[in-house]
Amino acid sequence: MNTLENVVTEIEREEVSFPTHADVAFRVRLALDDPDIPLGKAAQVIVAEPLLAARVVAVANSVAFNRSGIPVADVRGAVARLGLKFVRGLATAVVMRQMAGSIKSPVYQGLAVRLWEHTVHVAALSHLLAARFGLAPDVAMFAGIVHEVSGFYLISKSDTRNDLFADGSLLTLDAERRVGGAVLAALAVPAEVVAAIKALWEEGPLRYPPETLGDLLRLANQLTPIRSPLQPVVEGMELALDPDGEAQLAEILDQSSEELEALTSALRY
Fold it and tell me: HSE of 209 in the Cβ direction (CA atoms, 13 Å)?
C-alpha cells in the first residue's frame, strides 16, 4: 500500500485530525460560520485566538481596507470594517498557517513556508480579480486561502511520517482530489468554494475573462509568480489571450499592484 492509500484509509476512518495548536483557530472558524452571530459575539469569539485577533485588526488597518486613514484599535471595530465573510477567510488562514506552524524538520518547514507564500499571493490576487470581474471578493479570497489545504494537512503530519512524499503518490492530481476533498469537508468549507477548488484539478485551458469562481481561482493560480512546491502538473492549463485581453489584464494588475502588495503583506504574517 503506497503513502496515498495509507492517508486515504485514515481519512475514510474519519481520522482527519488537526494539530493541537491549530485546534482553537479551527473551533473559532466553525463558530463564525453561524450566519446570525451578532457582531459583539463574533468579536468575543475572535479574541479567543490571539493570532487571529491581531490579524483582523492589522488587515482592517491596511491600505487595502483603510482608505479613510482612520485606524481601528479593537476587534469589534475591525470586524465591522471587514465584514464577517472576510473575517471567516482570515480565520481559515490562521488554521492553514498553524497546521504547519510547529514542524521540526527543516525540509518540511521550508516546504510549508513556500506553500504559504504561494497561498497568500493566490488569495490576494483572487480577491482583487473578483472585484474587477463582478464576482464575490471575500468568497474568492477564502477559496484562495484553502486551495492548498491538502498540502498543509499533509505537511502537518510530517513529524510522524518523514517519508511522506518519497514515493510520489501524494504529488498527483488523484492525491489532491482525494485528500483535499476530505480535508475541505472536515473544515466545513461551503459547496461553492469546494467547486471552485475542484476546478483547479481539471485539465484544459483557462477561461478569460473568468465567468465563475473556479475560472477566477485557476487564473489567479496561473498568474502568481510564486509556484506551489507541491502542485502537480495539470495538462493544458494555458492562458491564451488576444491583444485586447492581454492589455486589459496588464492594466488590471498594474492598477492593483499597491493594493495587492498590501493585502498579501497583511495575510502573510
Answer: 15
How many other C-beta atoms are found inside a 10 Å radius of the C-beta of residue 70? 9
Are 155 and 100 within 8 A, CB to CB? yes
| 93 Cβ neighbours under 8 A, 6+ residues apart | 55, 120, 123, 145, 267
User: For the chain, what are the domain ranges?
Assistant: 3-268
Q: State pTM to two decimals.
A: 0.83
Query: Which cell is 117 given?
Result: 507564500
CATH class of 3-268: mainly alpha
Question: 247: which residues sit within 8 A by CB, 6+ positions away?
Answer: none
- Answer whether 124's CB lies under 8 Å from 200's CB: no
3-state secondary structure of 147: coil
pLDDT digits (tens, 9 = 90+) for 66-75: 888 899 999 9
